[in-house]
Amino acid sequence: MFWLLLAAAQPATPHPKPILSYEDYPPVALRNHWQGTVIADLTISPEGSVTACRIIESSSHEVLDDATCNILIKRAKFSPAHDSSGKRIEDHVRTPPINWKIVN
């Protein structure tokens, strides 16, 4: 059994569903007992979706880093940022540490 931890930054809803679940742990990482912490910089579109993901702190396992970005791009939604006139604009958000950890 393992757990993935992610504190959502600027959620689109007050009580967001978890973005990551135990089913997301890459099988090759499980087989090899790879664990690590990932921090990513996300580009947020004016509509609130993630359009790009750049790893700021690597887990030291490319498969975990790639899984983090792929999942966040597909699932994460944010409240759009606005400029001083109220127009929606692109923004960047740094994730809190995302811990890929296998727990027995």
Give the topology, please.
Blueprint: E1 2-5, H1 27-31, E2 36-44, E3 50-57, H2 62-75, E4 81-82, E5 88-89, E6 91-94, E7 98-102
Antiparallel strand pairs: 1-7, 2-3, 2-6, 2-7, 4-5
What fraction strand? 25-35%
User: Whole-number average pLDDT?
Assistant: 87
Q: Pairing-aware structural class of the strands and helices?
A: alpha+beta
Helix content: 10-25%
CATH class placement? Alpha Beta
Radius of gyration: 14 Å
How many separate domains make up the residues?
1
Distance between the termini: 5 Å
Structural summary, described in words:
- The chain has 104 residues and is an alpha+beta fold.
- The chain has a single domain, classed as Fusion Protein Consisting Of Minor Coat Protein, Glycine Rich Linker, Tola, And A His Tag, Chain: A, Domain 2, CATH 3.30.1150.10.
- It has helices at 27-31, 62-75, and strands at residues 2-5, 36-44, 50-57, 81-82, 88-89, 91-94, 98-102.
- A hairpin with a 5-residue loop joins strand 2 (36-44) and strand 3 (50-57).
- It is elongated, with a radius of gyration of 14 Å.
- 19% of the residues are buried.
- The model is unreliable at 1-12 (pLDDT under 50).
